[in-house]
Amino acid sequence: MVRKKIHFIILTLVLPLPVLAASIGVVVPESFYPSGSLLVAKVLINSSDQDINAASAQIKFPPGELSVVSIQTEQSIFNVWPQKPSFSNELGTISMEGVMIGDSWIGEGGEMAEIIFKVKAAGNAKINITSSSVLANDGEGTNILDYIRHAAVALGLSDSTKYLVVKAEEVTPSESQSQVADNQSVQIKEEMEVAGRSFWKDQVNVAYAIFLVLLLIALNLWRIARGRKRFKKSTPSDTMHKNAVNVVKTLEEKSKKETLTPEEEKILADFRGCIIEEYEELIDKN
Predict the structure, then answer these.
(1) How many CB atoms lie within 10 A of CB 38?
(2) Helix, strand, or coil here: 140?
(3) CATH T-level fold of 19-171
(4) 233 vs 225, 226, 230, CA distance in Å?
(5) pLDDT tens-digit map of 123-133
(6) Parallel, antiparallel, or unpaired: how do β-strands 145-155 and 32-33 relate?
(7) What's this model's pTM, rounded to 2 decimal places?
(8) In the chain, ranges of CATH 2.60.40.680 domains
(9) What's the CA gap between 112 and 168, in Å, rounded?
(10) Of the four listed, 1, 11, 14, 147, which is most buried by Cβ atoms within 10 Å?
């Protein structure tokens, strides 16, 4: 008899005690809410293995996109509030702490409070529980909180929004959520590459247009200089000779490969006229 008692005591010391855990999270029924609409979020507790009698939560939300209208506790599992639910729309914070007097609760989806938000602006809003506790009804107030669930919703956007929308996410993202984020990153990278190619194409077009404008300005200045020859005889500089010849040669070579634009044809005709008139010998030499 003594030997059996010793065996029982040894087994009691060796076998591990069951791990009792609870969770708390913010749950929203939809993943998209248009601007001006009301968003109802519930703070729910799960504790299927251990009776609880108290819980607290500190919640953070984006004040630029959401504002709290009210916090309802009529359906709460708690009946006494050492810290009544309070909020600050300026700071984007919510605080609450509830207990049960003379009772306890165990189960799934126990409501702590219901928060009613108003959607102010478009964006991807996250409602995060930054700090929390779920206390067991074990006479010691043991905090058995194991994990926290947050919520993220798209606000004021169309269904084809490019925001990454996650209805509920755990503190440690799951593999499927990581895959969604990776796919989103690839899509954004491809869009940035397309935008970059379009940007540089536009820059080249602008530079080419500026080049044509400068040529026209140079041509007009040349014409003005030629018009003054009646008052003062002067010979264009060698640099102007070479520039004129180079422009004509460049455009002539380009015309052999592709069709010139109307602006280029006009520049070629004007420069040819000037060169034939005064610089024909220079062209022959080159």
Answers:
(1) 10
(2) coil
(3) Immunoglobulin-like (2.60.40)
(4) 10, 9, 7
(5) 899 999 999 99
(6) parallel
(7) 0.52
(8) 19-171
(9) 17
(10) 147
